[in-house]
Amino acid sequence: MSRVLELTLALGAGLLLAFSNRGIADQPLSKDKLANKYRELVGTLVSPNKMPITRNASGGSVKFPAGYDVRAQNRIKAARQVLHDNFDEALPFLIDAIDDDHYCMTIDWAEGDAYYNYSVGRVCRDVIASKLEVYRNEIKFMGPQHWHRYDYGPITKEWWRARTGRSLAELQVEAIDWAIEQRKAEPKDKVREDRLNEIADLQKLRNEIAKSGKPAKPSGMLPMVTSDR
């Protein structure tokens, strides 16, 4: 292992220890120092590993290269969780990395049917989606294409610049409004009977968040895999 890589992993492990042993909000740090720690934590999402080979045709498979460092990947997974758990403070730094194309982790998208190599930017987007796409539990999906119709598309650096300072609850309300419009745009003749109440359910969720000012429980993040499947 190169000295640079050793230092990088040591930095990541130290940051995770500092962030996990005490609540981030309790850290006696200035605004600038706290921002630097978040930048460093996002930086630890860059994997030292080479990407595995993934195939997704009739079925999914993934083969990892020899020497794939699982411990390094587990630190990356832990860093992702810290960023997720401290989302309000981490969001600007997740947005900053949204275009980072360095390899981060390999995910299981469909419970064993599809595997993909995700970049740092895609993982940051997945963390954001977990917090904003709370509307998914109110929609019955009919396959991958239908699922991706509801990927919250507006997330960009420009999107965030126009929303800096908004609370998570406010961002969730906006995302649900977007999903309601997507749902209304679906052809009526293709909506099954068991989906007829979806718009009303989405509106109810939206109103509950708006009235209470409290964000809804996030959806899960995509699971990481580190062994051949």
What descriptive keywords fit this protein?
229 residues, mainly alpha, three-stranded antiparallel β-sheet, two-stranded antiparallel ribbon, 5 strands, disordered N terminus
Per-chain topology:
Elements: H1 3-21, H2 31-43, E1 53-56, E2 60-63, H3 70-85, H4 87-96, E3 103-108, E4 115-119, H5 120-132, H6 144-149, H7 157-161, H8 168-184, H9 198-212, E5 224-225
Antiparallel strand pairs: 1-2, 3-4, 3-5
Helix pairs in contact: 1-2, 1-3, 2-4, 3-4, 4-5, 8-9
Describe the structure.
The protein is mostly helical and 229 residues long. It has one domain (3-225). It is 50% helix and 9% strand. It has nine helices and five strands. It has helices at residues 3-21, 31-43, 70-85, 87-96, 120-132, 144-149, 157-161, 168-184, 198-212; strands at residues 53-56, 60-63, 103-108, 115-119, 224-225. The strands form two sheets. It has a three-stranded antiparallel beta sheet. It has a two-stranded antiparallel ribbon with strand order 1-2. Strand 1 and strand 2 form a beta hairpin. Helix 1 (3-21) packs across helix 2.
Mean pLDDT: 88
Biggest β-sheet description: 3 strands, antiparallel
Cα end-to-end separation = 27 Å
Count of beta strands: 5
Question: Globular, elongated, flat, extended or rod-shaped: what is the shape?
Answer: flat
Unreliable stretches covering 5 or more consecutive residues: 1-12
Sheet/helix structural class = mainly alpha
Whole-angstrom Rg: 19 Å
Helix-strand topology string:
HHEEHHEEHHHHHE
Task: Supply the number of helical segments.
Answer: 9
* Domains, number: 1
Strand order within the widest beta sheet:
4-3-5
